[in-house]
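Hi Y.,

Following your request, here is the sequence exactly as I used it, all 252 residues.
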Amino acid sequence: MSRLPNISKRGTVPDVVTEIRSVLKRWNVEPVSFKTQVDIQHEGDRPKAMYLVKSGWVYSYALLADGQRQIFFLHQAGDIAGLADFGVERVSCSVRSLGDCVVLPVPITAIAAKDFLTPDITTYFLQKSAQMQSILMRTLIAVGRMEARHRIVWLILMLHDRLPNPEMEKPVMEIPFNQSEIGDLIGLTNVSVSKMLCQLSDEGFIERKGSKILLRRLSDMQAMVSYEPMRFSAGPLVRKKTGEDIQKVPYQ
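Below is the corresponding structure, written out as C-alpha cells. Let me know if you'd prefer a different format.
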C-alpha cells in the first residue's frame, strides 16, 4: 500500500471568533480545554451555554432506554455544539469531547444580551444553525433509507465535504470516530462498519491508514449514493467597505 500524504487539521476558526471572544471578555469567559471522552454537557441539564469548538472535535449524543447510544452530530472547529437547545428548559443531548479539544463556552445570558449579537456574530450563528440542519436532514435520509454500504459511503463523503479544502486533487481525510462511534452515528454494528470499510478498500474506492482515508474514486462514490456536495461557505458574510460601496464577502 502506498504511503498516504499528511493532512493539515483545521486548527483555527474564522476571524469572527476573535470578535466573539472580545465580546465575551466582559463576562470573564475564556476557552476551556478538555481531555478525550469527557462530557462537556449532560442530557437533561438546564442550558447554561453553547460551545464554540476552537480546536479538536466534540460530538452530541443521547442514551436510549435500552442503554444504547445515538450520536447525532460531529462538531469540528468552528461549529457550535448546543445551538439546537437554545431557548429550551432542558438540553436534549449530551456533548462529549472526541480527543483533546478546546471550546469557548458562550453563556446563554450573553447571547440574550442586546450588545452581544453584532451583525457578524448573528450571521455566523445563523449559518452554523443552517449547516447543522442540512447535515442532520441528510443523516436522516442516510440512516432511514440507505443500506449499510451506502451509509458508510455517505458518511465518508459528508466528512470530505467538511474539509478545509475539499477540492484537493487527491482528497485525504480523517475519520476521528472509531468503528463503534461510526456505528452509533449511522445505525450499524461494529462488524458491519468493519466489513463495509474493508469492501470499499478492496474495491479501490478508498485507501486506509489508521484514521486517515484517501478517496481514490470520489466521483464513483458520489454517483453510488447520488450525493450532491454541500459546498458550505468558508465563514460568515461580513460587511466590508470598498470606497463608498458596502460589499458582502466571506471570511477566508
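The chain has two domains: 11-126, 146-230.

Thanks again,
Q.
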